[in-house]
Amino acid sequence: MHHTKHSDITMKHDNASANINENEDASPPLRRRKAQIRESNETQLLACAEAVFAEKGLEGASTAMIAERARLPKANLHYYFPTKLALYRHVLEDLFEDWHRAADTFEDSDDPVEAIGGYVRAKMDLSRRRSLGSKVWASEIIHGAHHMQDILNERVKP
User: Fold this and answer.
1) CB burial readout 104-133, b (16+ within 10 A) else e
2) What is the CATH number of the domain that holds 18?
3) How far apart are CA 99 and CA 22, in angstroms?
4) Which member of 9, 87, 109, 136 lies 3.0 to 4.6 Å from 81 by CB, making a disulfide possible if both were Cys?
5) Which domain holds residue 83?
6) What is the pLDDT of residues 41-86, one digit of tens each?
7) Where are the alpha helices (DSSP H) in the chain?
8) Which residue in 47, 120, 59 sits closest to 84, CA to CA?
């Protein structure tokens, strides 16, 4: 009987080793899946935050409103963005990247009329694609760009 128990223990240990090896093999896909979930949640939260900030402004918006719009628990929002201001700044940085890419059109032509025309078309397209973001951006600029001054100082050439 003692031998059987030892066999059971060995068998359990062997199964545990097999499970550990299976988990190690499954780990990279699991990590990729978790990264995909994280990216999806962040994208959803940023889109919802952009909409709420456009509708309510920074002061009128709350993380509860944004989480509700994203259909995620508020705790999840705070896992990705610890404060409302951190989320707002992330929205501004994302908008800045899009607006900055529009300025790349100046590199497409040496002709000033063409270059400015390309820039205006890119900005108009961006305003149509991200109308709520355009509202957030304009509101921030109108209110003195206090929350994005460091972004502008770091990334915009004088």
Assistant:
1) ebeeeeeeeeeeeebbeebbeebbeebebb
2) 1.10.357.10
3) 46
4) 87
5) 2-155
6) 999 999 999 999 999 999 999 999 999 999 999 999 999 999 999 9
7) 2-60, 63-70, 74-80, 84-103, 112-129, 131-142, 149-155
8) 59
